[in-house]
Each structure stands twice: as structure tokens, then as C-alpha cells.
Amino acid sequence: MILLKLFIAFLKIGLFAFGGAYSFVPMIEREVVQNNQWLAKEEFLEILGIVKVFPGAISIKFATYTGYKVAGVPGAIVANFANILAPVLFIMAASLVYSKYKDVPFVRGSLEMIQYAVFAMIIAVGIQLVDKVGVFELKNLFVVLVAFALFALTKIHPAFIIVGAAVYGGLINSITST
């Protein structure tokens, strides 16, 4: 029964999370925290921080973590299979349709508006994930501003920005706790 629940939850994520990595986060949170209580909100946020450090798609890493936590290796396999099933089928169908209809104004307009909807969802996730009071502490605001500047203005890989923030946070916490 738990494998079926994992399959359905991650199939929904794969079916309805459009737009890339961070558009998946609200769907994943709804399924694994709110709907199924496989992860507590705090654990979800901690795992979100952890999965950003490792390469690969966020949804695959969450499917692996959640599936494994809930049902071991079979759970991880089922959750990942369900997660990629819909996108694989969609891309196969879309490649046929896109090559034929990419210049139709309705199709171009639809794809453009999806980008703006995903942009809005990414901003909403960012606002939900941050401690709204803590973000204005000097040490935290420093990380926000430096990370934003590095990401927006340089070609530094995001993984290096994340690792840098982790090292900075570890050092600051070590210094202030002694």
C-alpha cells in the first residue's frame, strides 16, 4: 500500500510540476509534508538545503530520500520511476508536436506565459523558505546579498555559492558559539 501511495504522490509531482527545479518544490512539499506526512516541515527544509548541494534534479533527490525513508530501496525505486514517468512521456509527445506547431502564435504565447507563472512560483517558494525575521540579521543578509550578486553577475557555478555559504555559516556559527 505504501509503495502505491509513493507512486501516486510522485506521479502527481511529475505530472504537474512545470518549469524546472524550483517549480517542483511547492508540489513536493504539499505531497510529502502536507498530504502524506512522510516528512515534517523542518525535515523538509533541511533536506531541501542538503539536496541543493548534490548534483541532479531536486525532484529525483526528494523521491530518493522520501522513498527510501518510507519504504527502503523499493520505495526509492518506485518514487523515482513515478517521478520521471510523466515527464518522459510528455517530452516524447511534445517533441513531435513542437516540431510541427512551434511557430503557431497560440503555442508560442502559451510557452511564454508558463515562464512567467514559474517565475512567480519560484519567488513564492523563496519567500516561504526563508525565516522572514532572520533574513534581516547582518550575517544572513550578507549571505543573501553576496549569493544574489554572485549568481546574477558572475558565471560562478551555483554549487560553489552554496558550498561557500555553508562554509561561511559553519565558520560564523563556530566563532559565535565559543
Describe the protein in words:
The chain is mainly alpha-helical. The chain has a domain at 2-104. The protein contains 7 helices and no strands. It has helices at residues 2-16, 21-35, 41-51, 58-101, 105-129, 138-153, 158-177. The longest helix is centred in the middle third of the chain and has 44 residues, at 58-101. The chain is globular, with a radius of gyration of 19 Å. The termini are far apart. The mean pLDDT is 89.
Summarize this structure briefly.
The chain has 178 residues and is mostly helical.
Q: What is the helix content?
A: over 70%
Q: What is the number of helices?
A: 7
Low-confidence runs (pLDDT<50, min 5 residues)?
A: none
Give Rg in angstroms.
19 Å
- SSE run: HHHHHHH
Main β-sheet description: none
Distance between the first and last residues' Cα: 49 Å
Give me the secondary-structure category: mainly alpha
Mean pLDDT: 89
Q: In what range is the share of β-strand residues?
A: under 5%
